[in-house]
Amino acid sequence: MNNHPWNNSFEWRNHTATSGVLSQAQIDQFDQDGYVVVNDIFSLDELRDLVAITDAADAEAVAVLAAQPNERIAISEKGAITFAGQLASKIPEIRRFVKNPTIMGACRDLVGPDVRMYHDQTVYKQIEKPRRFPWHQDNGYLFVTQQHYLTCWISLNGATIENGCPQVVTGLHKQGTMSHYFVPTLGYECFENPPKTPIIAEVKAGGAVFFSSLTPHLTGPNTSNGVRKAYIVQYAQSDAVVMEGNANDGDPTGSHSISSEPRGLPVLQNGQICAD
Ligand SMILES: O=C(O)CCC(=O)C(=O)O
Predict the structure, then answer these.
(1) Model pTM greater than 0.85?
(2) Centre of ligand 1 from the C-alpha of residue 135, in Å
């Protein structure tokens, strides 16, 4: 395991519970292991409304995939794993879920007082072509500084080992971003075999796995008889910067602030939840 070429120095900073949403024990687990599971974030009514939005977005994505050669666009493939991105920028009704008070409390504690939703997408693991989503850190896809940001992996219908819940390797987030290579059709990978036994992070419908953009995670094949549904929302410090270029070709060719990206959304300012 090598460092990402642009990860020249990194120091993990521990966090303090101030929001009253997460306990210090949960924050300590996040700092030590790189993840924490929080159940009961959304009520049944909220979940029903959220899933209505995400199901429609997935259906639209699947229809687009069905018209492609091999029914695939990049790593999104009909019958295997389907992605629908940038819902918050297009669908105002989903923003109340993105700014859920429990999630905002976690953001305050684990990101800071000024936070922008950086990226959101649904990820539906279909059953026809079961496959893994490779071991990776989210910061291995696009290199962001500060390297640590927060991924909130919301389970829409319950995530188990059988249907492909997240698995994490603990401790490695403290080293910063690792180098990744691309596995055709599957995605970026930082290692094929984890250096230590992974933790299985099962989570109930309406709960979430919070992990760092630096936490290596994978989801296994969906071997159940139903689609596994997740809505993934990522939150970064408002002044975070995306480095541009290909890390294998040398130094970054440029950079831009996440606040210039139309897909994002300010969610916290001075610790207060932003209005739409
Ligand atoms: O939800 C999944 O199956 C994997 C998605 C994932 O890890 C990601 O988008 O970074």
Answers:
(1) yes
(2) 10
